[in-house]
Amino acid sequence: MTTPPTSRVSTDAVRVQLDRILASARFVHSERLSRFLRYTVEQTMAGHAEQLKEYPIGVEVFGRKDSFDPRIDAIVRVQAITLRSRLKDYYAKEGSDDPVIIEYTKGGYAPVVRDRFNVEPGLNGAEQASIAVLPFLNLSSDLENEYFSDGLTEELISALTNVKGMRVVARTSVFQFKGKAEDVRKIGAQLNARMVLEGSVRKSGDHLRITAQLIDVASGFHTWSRTYRIEMRDLFAVQEEIAAAIVTTLSTMVDRSAGRPTKSLDAYHAYLKGRFYLNKWSEAGFRKSIHFFETAIQLDENMAAAWAAHAVACFQLACCGTEPPSELMPKARAAAARALQLDDSLAEAHVALGGVLAIHDWDWAGSETEFARAMELDPDGAPAYQCYSVACLIPQGRLQEALEAAQQACELDPLSPSVNSSLALAHFVLGEYNEAIDYFKKALEIDPNFFLARWWLGVSYLNASMLLKAFAQFRKAGALSQDSANDAIKYSYGHALIGRRDKARRKLEALMSKSRERYFSPVLIAAIHVALAETDAAFDWLDKACEAHDTWLVWLGVDRRFDSIRSHKQFRALLKKLGLSSVARSTTAG
C-alpha cells in the first residue's frame, strides 16, 4: 500500500479536523473508534502508513495480547468498517461543511486526507447522496396484495443499496411511516435523507400500474416522476428502470448490479410473501415466512435470495426457543451455504451463517469471519451489526464491543424495534438497567406489540427491583404471545426470585406437564431451579441444554441468574464446552 495523499492538506489542518471529529456527537462517546481514528491519523502523519496492519492495530489500539491472531479475531476489520460508516455519517451531518475530509478506503487502515474544495472529478456529490424509499401504497382492491407493494419497496431498497456512495435508509425505519400522511420533508429530515422516493401500486390480475416519484427533501419539489402501466412479466425491468432513474438523478455510479432474483414470477411472489411475514418479527411470522421461502425455492432452486431469507427465518425461529434447535439450525446453516454457493455477495446469508456458527456450533472464529464479511459487503446494513452484537460478542463477554456494535446498528436503523431492543440488551448485560429500560420502552413506542421487547422489559424491571412493573410487563407479554408455557416460565422465575417458592413451584409443575408436548429452553428451567436454590436440578437442565445446543445457552457466561453457581466446577466445565472459558465476570447480567 502506498502512503495516502495527505500532502495536499497541511498537518496543522489535519490535526484541527481530527480534534473536530473526535469532539463530535458521533465520536465523543465511542472510545474505541476515537482511539482507532487518532492512532491511524497520527501514524500516517508521522510517515508510518505502511505499518498500519491488523496485528499492530489490534495490539496498540484495542489492547489485544501478543498472541492476537487477526485470522481468528476480526476486531480490527469490524471496527474499520464501523469507522468508515461513522465518518460517512459525520460528513453527511455535522461535518457537511468541514474543509478537510478524512476517510478510509475499503480494506485499508491508513486514512486518506483531502481538501473538500479541491476534489477530483467524480467524488463530489456522491458522498452525501442519501435516500429513503417510503412504503409504496397498495391501491389494489384486494388487501392481500399488500405483500406485493411492500415487496416492491423492499426490492427497490435492496437495488439502491448497491449504488456506490449512496446511503439508503433501512427498511424497518422507513416502514414506520407506512400509512401515515406526513410531509415528506419532515420524514426526510427525521431519517436524515436527502431524497425521498414514494409511490403506489395498483394490481389487477396480471396488470400493474406503478407510480413513482422522487422528492428533494430540502425544497419539497419533485425531481423525477413516472407512471408505468405494465404486465406482470415486465416487473423486473421496471424495478431496474426506477432504480436507474434515481441513480441518474443523483449523479452517482453503480458499483454492482443487484440483478434479477429469479426468472420465475411465481417464485418471486412467494419470496415477497415470505419477506412480508419475516418482517413481522414474531414466531408466527417466522413460521409463515419459512413456508413461502420454501415455496419459492421449490419453484426456483437457484434463487439465492430465497435461500438466504430462508436461512434467516429458520435461525430466528430457532432463537424463539419454542422449537428444537437441532431441527432448525441445520436447516439455517444449509440454506445459508446454498445461498452463498449461488451468490457469495449476499450479506444476509453471511449474517445468518455467522449466527448459526456462534449460537449453535459454538465456532466463534468462524462466526467472526462471517459477520466481518457481511459488514464488508453491506456496511450500511444494520442486521450484521445487530446479530454480531447479540450472537457473537455478548456471549464472549466482549460487552463494550457489543454495545458499540448495537449502537452502530441503531444509528443505521433508528426506528427498528428489534434493533432498539438489541441495544437495550447490550446495556442490560452491562448491568445498566435504566438505559436498558429506556431502549426497550423506545422499541415498544415504535411497536407496542413487539413481544421480545415487552418480555425483556419485564426482566429488566425484575433486575432493577421494580417488581410490580415487572409482573405488569409479563402479563402484557403473555397476552401478546398467547403461549401458556412462556407465561409459566416468566412467572415461575419471577416468583422464585422474590421468595414466593410455593407459587414458583406450582407454575413450574404446570410447565413440566407440557414438557412432552412441546420444546422449551432448558436454560430457562435451569434459571428457575437456581432461583429456588436447587443446584443439582439446575445443572441437570443445563446439561440437557448443552446436549440440545439450546439457543439460550451461549449467554451462560454473562447471565446474572446463574451467579450463585458460577464458582462450581460444573459451571466452568460447561463454559469450556462452549468455547467460552475466557468469560469470567464477577458482575454479569442476564
Characterization of this structure:
With 590 residues, the chain is α/β, with parallel strands linked by helices. Among the domains are: 11-120; 128-259, ABC-type transport auxiliary lipoprotein component (Rossmann fold, 3-Layer(aba) Sandwich), CATH 3.40.50.10610; 483-590. The chain is built from 25 helices and ten strands. Helix 15 runs antiparallel to helix 16 and helix 21 runs antiparallel to helix 22 (501-512). The two termini are 45 Å apart. The longest helix is centred in the first third of the chain and has 18 residues, at 75-92. Residues 1-7, 119-127, 251-257 and 585-590 have low confidence and may be disordered. A hairpin with a 5-residue loop joins strand 8 (207-216) and strand 9 (222-231). Strands 3, 4, 6, 7, 8 and 9 form a six-stranded mixed β-sheet that branches.
The major β-sheet equals: 6 strands, mixed
Task: State the CATH architecture of the domain at 128-259.
Answer: 3-Layer(aba) Sandwich
CATH top level of the domain at 128-259 is: Alpha Beta
CATH fold call of the domain at 128-259: Rossmann fold
Based on helices, strands and strand pairing, what is the structural class? alpha/beta
CATH superfamily of the domain at 128-259: ABC-type transport auxiliary lipoprotein component
Helix content bin? 55-70%
The poorly predicted ranges are 1-7, 119-127, 251-257, 585-590
Tell me the number of strands.
10
Provide the β-strand percentage band: 5-15%
Structural shape: globular
**Discrete helix count:** 25
Distance between the termini: 45 Å
Q: Rg to the nearest angstrom?
A: 25 Å
What is the average of the pLDDT values?
A: 84
